[in-house]
Design goal:
Length: 520
């Protein structure tokens, strides 16, 4: 059922040193909310700088949807401390407002309270806001307020050089891209293990459903306006959350970089009937989306994992991928961890290290359209009822179902041996301890994040739970001192970002309409 990688693990044991300097980064989203649990309607705080140019603290879809971004680093503790420092600083700036600790949004009864993120009056700033207006037009604003954690991951160049020799490949750039594509395909195959272990969005506020009439799920409900599915792990990753049916026609398999880039380019140029019917402008002549294509821009492609690279000056993201190859991957299937003040913890990071390396060194076979169907179905089953007793899933396209727990345990047997390799230079054998801890989740689903938070939510209500946790974390974070960033550095970063935005706005010499025409 699971690829045999014993020979590769033996090779890794002799090359463990090349896994020492894994590069990582985290992007954490969180809603600003009022003390009563309603979404905040205030503007992005000036003390946090320009959302357009502050690379540590920005906004996502909405003005109230914050995003915290850590620099790339190879030290887990430093990365998490950096993220915590951002939280500490922001909590002090917000004063009475709170950071929502759940992936599914707070109480939003009035859609007019969701203000699109404002990036200023420059052409690039106006374009970013218009793109978000397009998302609202296409999918509705409520869906865009769902929050998550993104994990950026790359293996060191020294590893890839040795891997190229093992695979008899001469081109290191090609080796890296092929390796990351294998990782992505296996993440598609087995990545449902992430929502099973760490999914933390089994419930929603009834106000979410009031603005989403197409959902046909049999929710349980209590008198606290809380709805849930008994065995759900991550409603955020289900069809209730981020989804785009128009993208299904792409049938993305990640079998080659060229396929990925070409399919996205087609989606960027192909009109979609539903979006054409909405039009480019409203009846008053105001633009409501960038275009009527399947994708307005590349970022609109929703997937649990993405290949990434850094675009050079003048390069588009897709051109950069083709020119420079895949440089890192972005995992997008982590729910906000409600048991952490910063939305993610060390256990999750270490597990992702293990799992992503396992995905990279496992089966390199391509994904067929038939297998893609089973993959999609597995993710649907796990997100909606992954903790169901004796739950089964399909493996590959054999049309034979296996117990989810059995597959999970088999994966962990490989992960534990890999943990021993990664722990070779660790003092406390942290990877092995985490494997031992998480292995128990398959025999006892009540240990999973989704089961634990659901038990609390059913008693207190989702809004009451969110308010209680956000207050608790606000008090904890405000009482702590910053560890790796100075408060003056955060203030300087904010002030500098405001000046950079002003410079961009002052340097625009063409109209916004002309700017948009040049984007085509």
């Amino acid at each position: 059922m699971i690829p045999d990688i014993s020979n590769t693990l033996t090779w890794l044991e002799n090359n463990a040193f090349n896994l020492k300097n894994i590069n990582r980064g985290i992007e954490r989203e969180t809603l600003r909310v009022e003390p009563n649990g309603n979404i905040a309607i205030s503007k992005h705080p000036k003390d946090l700088g320009s959302a357009l140019k502050n690379e540590w603290i920005t906004t996502d879809f909405a003005e109230s949807l914050l995003e915290f971004i850590t620099p790339v680093d190879n030290r887990i503790e430093y990365m998490l401390s950096f993220l915590r420092d951002i939280h500490r600083y922001v909590c002090r700036v917000l004063d009475k407002e709170l950071l929502w600790p759940l992936s599914m949004p707070c109480r939003i009864e009035d859609m007019n309270r969701i203000k699109l993120a404002n990036y200023g009056k420059s052409n690039i700033g106006l374009m970013k806001t218009l793109y978000r207006k397009g998302l609202k037009t296409r999918y509705g604003a409520i869906m865009q307020t769902i929050s998550g954690v993104h994990y950026n991951f790359s293996l060191p160049v020294s590893f890839w050089k040795e891997w190229a020799n093992l695979q008899n490949l001469q081109n290191c750039k090609e080796t890296i891209s092929l390796g990351y594509l294998s990782l992505i395909r296996n993440y598609y195959r087995f990545g449902w293990i992430i929502p099973y272990l760490f999914g933390a969005s089994p419930a929603i506020c009834s106000s979410f459903l009031e603005h989403n009439n197409n959902i046909k799920l049999s929710f349980k409900i209590n008198n606290k306006r809380t709805l849930w599915l008994p065995y759900a792990t991550s409603l955020r990753l289900s069809d209730l959350g981020y989804n785009n049916k128009s993208q299904n026609i792409l049938k993305m398999t990640f079998n080659s970089l060229e396929e990925y880039v070409n399919k996205l380019k087609i989606a960027l140029k192909t009109p979609w009937k539903q979006f054409v019917e909405k039009g480019i402008k409203d009846k008053n002549g105001n633009r409501i989306q960038l275009n009527t294509n399947i994708l307005q821009i590349e970022n609109e492609f929703y997937s649990p994992i993405r290949p990434k690279c850094i675009a050079r000056s003048g390069e588009s993201y897709l051109d950069a991928l083709m020119n420079n190859g895949i440089e890192y991957i972005e995992v997008r299937s982590l729910d906000i961890n409600p048991f952490s003040a910063i939305g993610v913890n060390k256990t999750q990071v270490c597990f992702l290290d293990l799992f992503l390396i396992w995905c990279m060194i496992s089966d390199i076979s391509k994904i067929s359209f038939e297998e893609l169907y089973y993959i999609t179905e597995n993710w649907r089953v796990v997100t909606l009822e992954g903790r169901k007793p004796n739950q089964k899933i399909n493996i590959r396209s054999h049309n034979k179902k296996y117990f989810l727990a059995d597959i999970g345990k088999e994966i962990f047997h490989n992960l534990h041996r890999l943990a021993e390799i990664l722990d070779k230079y660790e003092k406390y054998k942290k990877y092995q301890k985490i494997c031992d801890e998480l292995f128990l989740y398959f025999d006892n689903p009540e240990l999973t994040y989704s089961a634990r938070i659901l038990n609390i939510i059913k008693q207190q209500g989702i809004i009451e739970t969110g308010i209680s946790l956000s207050r608790k974390y606000r008090d904890i974070l405000c009482a702590e001192s910053l560890q790796v960033i100075k408060e003056t550095d955060l203030k300087i970063k904010a002030e500098k970002s405001i000046l950079e935005q002003q410079n961009i706005e002052n340097s625009d010499f063409i109209s916004f309409e002309s700017y948009l025409d040049n984007l085509v």
